[in-house]
Amino acid sequence: MQIITTGLRFPEGPVWLADGSVALVEIERKTVTIVAPDGAQRILSRHQGGPNGMAVGPDGAYYVCNNGGFIWHETGGVIRPGLQPDDYVGGSIERVDPVSGAVTTLYDQCDGVKLRGPNDIVFDTHGGFYFTDLGKTRHRDRDVGGVFYAKADGSFITELAWPLLTPNGIGLSPDGMVVYAAETATARVWAFDLDGPGQLRRAKPNMPHGGRFVAGLGGYQMFDSLAIDAAGNICVATLVTGAVTVISPAGQVLRMVRFADPMVTNICFGGDDLTRAFVTLSGSGQLVALDWLDANWNIPGLRLNFER
Fold first, then answer.
1. Which fold does the domain 2-220 belong to in CATH?
2. Which member of 120, 145, 211, 238 lies 3.0 to 4.6 Å from 190 by CB, making a disulfide possible if both were Cys?
3. Percent of the chain whose pLDDT exceeds 70
4. How confident is the model over 228-279, as pLDDT tens digits?
């Protein structure tokens, strides 16, 4: 494992760039930050609330899920997000100009219902995107979340699946016909079959949100964001135990890669052949990289739509 950079303030949403850099968000610092191959950091944009998941869109801009902010806690050198803060600004989807860093709000509601805590995002081949809204937690109550679909030009947004309990990571199968979403609190992965862009085919037997169960982990673990590999496996960042868990579409746990940080939050694949994994260790504020392939594993990552 190579430590690319340190001193980040709860990094998430890594995006590999063609020049070898990694764009990511720092949720606690409220920035989009570009990390060069030598570890140098450059702040591209500053935000209110809390920039979270991020993806490159068809126009080359960064599309950011803004969760509205957290109360932060730091104990023993590990930083963790907490409850909804007093200065909570609401949730939104933002567009960040990749050159100037200018921030534009695309969506802050769907059908008159305010977004609460957008978390992670993935683009399809049509130029639209799916995103999760995890919601916010307060002292005595918690929002119920969902999965949404929207167009990058700000003209259309719809609720795809509801209700889910703390939906977090999101990804698309290689053929683009299945959306996977990971729930944090339950450590479950759900699949949502599609008939077309933003069109859910409800599973049978019918779950309240229309999805089908893929996998869940035993014991005290939680899921964060995810990436899909070239074979369609779901690579889920796993909290508490500090790992990336690789799960087949059929629900079998295939591999678990562990790290020395309980807050393993995101993974993306990079390099020309997508065999390098970039992982955010958010508790300790690190971006690390490792060769994903080894003697027992020969499946690279899946190239994201509009990735350059």
1. Neuraminidase (2.120.10)
2. 211
3. 100
4. 999 999 999 999 999 999 999 999 999 999 999 999 999 999 999 999 999 9
Which backbone phi and psi does 99 adopt, to 5 degrees?
A: -105, -55
Task: Please give the mean pLDDT across all residues of the chain.
Answer: 97
Q: What is the reported pLDDT for 278?
A: 98
The pair of structure tokens assigned to 10 is: 């709860």
| Residue closest to 267 by CA, chosen among 233, 299, 226 | 226
